[in-house]
Design goal:
The protein is mostly beta strands and 162 residues long. 6% of the residues lie in helices and 48% in strands. It has one domain. It contains 1 helix and 10 strands; from the N terminus they run βββαβββββββ.
Amino acid sequence: MREGMQFSHGFNGTKGWMSSPRGTRELPGDEGEDLKKQAHFFPITGMEELVSKLHVREKDTVDGAVSYHLSAPIDEHRTQNYYLDSATGLLLRDLIVTETMIGNIPEQVDYSDYRTVGGVKVPFVIRISAVDPRDGSTYRFNSIEQNVPIDEAKFEMPRGKK
């Protein structure tokens, strides 16, 4: 990707879209579902659904930090794994492993560069890794604001060339 190119993705709760210098398009079902998953900025907020199934596995190392590895089955073929920094309790890695006939397929998100925003530690670098390297990306934030009013129109697909 060239530096300075502007891309934006949006999800309004039902459908997803993508805008680039080449135009705007609605995302097909599977891409929209992927965007829906990413809409949860910090996935540990969904942990309450898994807490009754959550198990502490072992200590592990993530990017040089000793971490606690917690694991819970999501369904028959998928397992959710969280890696929490043993010193700070901050989420370092979120890993979903899907068991298939051809082997395990990992979807990994790493969180780093935590800074305090409004009294809450927030990751300013989020790195998404997948089996297909084209599905991976790194988000680096310069600033993050909390509880800022957002115009509802921002969640609708922009009009323009498709």
